[in-house]
Amino acid sequence: MHDHIHHHPHPNQPDEEDGPFTEYRLLEMALRELLIEKEVITQAELHKTYQMMDDRGPHNGARMVAKAWSDPVYLDLMRRDATEAAKSIGLEPTWLNLIALENTDAVHNVVVCTLCSCYPWPLLGLPPDWYKSRAYRSDVVQNPRKVLAEFGTILPETTEVRVHDSSADMRYLVVPKRPEGTENWSEENLAKLVTRDSMIGVVPALAIETL
Amino acid sequence: MVNKSLTDYRGIHDLGGLLCEPFAPDEHDYEPWEKRVHAVRELLATKGLLRVDELRRAVEGLGEERYQRLSYYEQWIWAISQIMLERGIVTDAEIGARVETIRAKLASHD
After folding, report:
1. Inter-chain CB proximity B95 and A24 less than 8 Å
2. Is B31 on the interface with A (CB under 8 A)?
3. Which of A3, A28, A130, B67 lies deepest, with the highest CB count within 10 Å?
4. Alpha-carbon gap, residue A22 to A13, rounded angstroms
5. Looking at this predicted complex, what is its ipTM?
6. Which residues in chain B have Cβ-Cβ distances shorter than 8 Å to A35?
7. How do residues A22-80 score in pLDDT, each as one tens digit?
8. Topology given in CATH for the domain delimited by A57-210
9. Are B13 and A115 in contact (CB under 8 A)?
10. Under an 8 A CB cutoff, do A30 and B95 touch?
11. Pair B75, B13: CB distance under 8 Å
């Protein structure tokens, strides 16, 4: 393998912010160019895909959680068929077979994909590095309380911890406990308390003081 | 007969319950090239040219050393290339030639 090529911007990519051109980055550029030349994919389709990726983020999952906190009929639908619940508010989880997991005082749910990186990304966006790390995938199964503590989440011994292993065919969305003092809050404001990590189950939803 | 433990049958990707390095909740912002890899994968999947199980099978075929050394999207772009080769969409020679063309172009700007 050759040494890394230096980080001068590619003339066709003035907005390039990446690090050095490693072999794998060269492979990415080569393959993408070839796929476009062969009309397997088009530049326009790629741009549309970037746009779609940008639109997918934790704000989508947060809408579902806030609605589940506010609307018992919706919560019931989430419990029965979370994919349908997502679709019913205009979200498109497409291939996703989604299961909602409710955190309570008695049970705390946390999600992992031990084999790879399965994640409800239409609802949460792209997963954080740590979710895909070898350490998380191995340790959260073995010692979930210790991993949760790394996020500052210390649970009482009386709370049961359940670790859920995602698969290519089934993804989980944690519904964190509704924070105290939010009884009369609108769904829109409630959604601001629902973070990505709270929907993975590694932290609770934000407390109202933090807003 | 030698009794094998469960871990003897594990693939390199099968990490649940093993003790690896200590966990720390690190993350970085996605780099543009990583987003491009993700978009290409997404698009090929939409077109029925790359299934999620195919991608994983290729990633899991990296071998232990590369599986541990390569970053997530390095694994992905390698795996996507493998599937495109297997499906006859691109050839090894085309990829190799194009990588060299790009390398030369970039070097000439140094």
Report:
1. no
2. yes
3. A28
4. 16
5. 0.85
6. 40, 44, 84, 89-90
7. 899 999 999 999 999 999 999 999 999 999 999 899 999 999 999 999 999 999 999 99
8. Nitrile Hydratase; Chain A (3.90.330)
9. yes
10. yes
11. no
